[in-house]
């Protein structure tokens, strides 16, 4: 899937001209403070080491298909969660708690890249990274772990961070919290005056063809 521009001023997005920030006057003051702070300077890294940051940054760019600026600073947002031990409150019984699992799986990602290409994951080309990750996603086991659970760890944190950011809201046409304004036009395709129509309604943003080793479409 090709990434859609995150810049609302770039007419190539699905919701051209839409800017979630423009709706901030309709949010309550506390929400304004929380959301708009995400648009400021990203917090300094406190959890990831230099090597882990490089691997995580490349991993998040691949998972979210972020290839151009402005990027949502996902690595900084995940780092802050892990530094403050703000996990999901659970972890798989056969994996470490999330902070330790992040350290070990990023290290294994670099180890896998070195074994295959003699370089770290961040040093690989975009296509090399993509092939490596597709292999992990399709596997049952990956370096002693259940691959689907590693994938769950990575994608849960990546998507939670990404879709909490107003730049991602611009991409999906989300106007932000409904409180206190609310919505009055309820129903399928019933837009509010401040919402923008999807410029590509016939394009499924999740459409893809994943093929197994036997060639069967999954």
Describe the structure.
It is a single chain. The relative contact order is 0.18. A hairpin with a 2-residue loop joins strand 1 and strand 2 (145-146). 41% of the residues lie in helices and 2% in strands. The model is unreliable at 1-11 and 209-218 (pLDDT under 50). It has a domain at 28-172. A two-stranded antiparallel ribbon has the order 1-2. With 218 residues, the chain is mainly alpha-helical. The radius of gyration is 19 Å and the shape is globular. The chain contains 7 helices and 2 strands, in the order H-H-H-H-H-E-E-H-H. It has helices at residues 29-37, 50-64, 74-83, 98-117, 126-138, 147-162, 166-172; strands at residues 141-142, 145-146. Helix 3 (74-83) crosses helix 6.
Q: What is the spatial order of strands in the main beta sheet?
A: 1-2
The N- to C-terminal Cα distance equals: 16 Å
Tell me the number of strands.
2
Instruction: Give the amount of beta strand, in percent.
Output: under 5%
The description of the largest β-sheet is: 2 strands, antiparallel
Average of the residue pLDDT scores: 88
Integer-rounded radius of gyration: 19 Å
Count every helix, treating DSSP H or I runs of 4 or more residues as helices. Answer: 7
Please tell me what the overall shape is: globular
Order of helices and strands: HHHHHEEHH
Regions with little confidence, pLDDT below 50 for 5+ residues = 1-11, 209-218
Helix content: 40-55%
Helix-strand category: mainly alpha
């Amino acid at each position: 899937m090709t990434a859609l521009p995150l810049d609302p001023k770039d007419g190539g997005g699905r919701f051209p001209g839409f800017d979630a920030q423009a709706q901030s006057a309709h949010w309550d003051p506390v929400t304004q403070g929380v959301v708009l702070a995400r648009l400021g300077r990203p917090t300094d890294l406190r959890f990831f080491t230099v090597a882990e940051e490089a691997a995580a940054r490349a991993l998040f760019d691949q998972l979210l298909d972020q290839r151009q600026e402005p990027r949502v600073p996902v690595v900084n947002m995940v780092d802050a969660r892990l530094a403050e031990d703000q996990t999901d409150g659970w972890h798989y019984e056969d994996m470490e708690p999330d902070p330790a699992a992040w350290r070990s799986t990023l290290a294994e990602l670099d180890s896998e890249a070195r074994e295959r290409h003699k370089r770290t994951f961040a040093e690989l080309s975009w296509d090399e990274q993509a092939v490596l990750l597709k292999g992990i996603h399709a596997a049952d086991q990956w370096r002693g772990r259940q691959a689907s659970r590693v994938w769950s760890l990575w994608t849960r944190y990546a998507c939670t961070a990404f879709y909490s950011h107003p730049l991602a809201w611009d991409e999906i046409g989300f106007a932000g919290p409904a409180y206190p304004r609310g919505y009055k036009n309820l129903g399928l395709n019933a837009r509010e005056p401040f919402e923008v129509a999807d410029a590509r309604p016939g394009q499924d943003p999740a459409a893809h063809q994943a093929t197994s080793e036997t060639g069967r479409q999954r």
